[in-house]
Amino acid sequence: MSGPATIGAAQACADMRRWLERAVIGLNLCPFAKAVHVKGQIHYAVYEPAEEADLMDALLAEARDLAALDAAVRDTTLLIAPNTLADFLDFNDFTARAERRLAGAGFDGVFQLASFHPQFQFAGTEPDDIGNATNRAPYPTLHLLREESVDRAVDAFPEAEAIFERNIDTLEALGPTGWAALDVGPGSAKP
After folding, report:
1. What's the short name of a Pfam family annotated to this entry (predicted)?
2. What is the pLDDT of residue 3?
3. 55-68 vs 88-102: helix axis angle to the nearest 10?
4. What is the DSSP track for 17-63?
5. Are residues 116 and 87 in contact, defined by beta-carbon separation less than 8 angstroms?
């Protein structure tokens, strides 16, 4: 009996670009995403192994690479882990450890870490709550954001704190059927 098929880097990147274009940018869930996408400043990195053993090292390597480049070249990195951490609670625990490791490696105040997961669930919500879709991506993903870029984006967007509430309203209006119609799940894009 064989296990689940391994998702390769080309498929993972294609699916994540589709999700970014259709959901994140298409629904304006993040008003800051379009500019870096259009300018080609998003780096897509894929961690393919099924075991998480070296994922932390991969994240730290991506952080070092991002820090070494000018934001005009690479503003942000999405580290996609399509074949590991399928359980959201395990992923959530890993994300907390990753934040501590990034801080310990000297990246506190340099990067923020955002997380996306196919089963993402905010505390106090039900698994099928459509609002959880704001952080649902095709695969477990760790998003390195430059603090400087976040600060500039927030300064340019006068009501940044209202983004989350607006996103919930958008998704509630869209509903589960509308979200499904976006077709942004695993394997939805052609690599």
Report:
1. DUF1415
2. 53
3. 50
4. HHHIIIIIITTTSSTTHHHHHHTT-EEEEE---SS-TTHHHHHHHHH
5. no
Alpha-helix runs per DSSP H in the chain: 9-19, 33-38, 55-68, 88-102, 147-156, 163-181
pLDDT beneath 70, residues of the chain: 1-4, 158, 160
pTM of the model: 0.94
Q: Residue-wise over 116-142: b if at least 16 C-beta within 10 A, else e?
A: bbbebbeeeeeeeebbbbbbbbbbbbb
Contact 188, 18 (CB under 8 A): yes
CA distance linking residue 145 with residue 68, whole number of Å: 14
User: What is the C-alpha to C-alpha distance for residues 27 and 24, in angstroms, rounded to an integer?
Assistant: 6
**Cβ(76)–Cβ(43) below 8 Å:** yes
Residue indicated by tokens 């905010």: 122
Question: Mean pLDDT score of the chain, rounded to an integer?
Answer: 94
Burial of 3 (0-12, 13-18, 19+ CB in 10 A): exposed
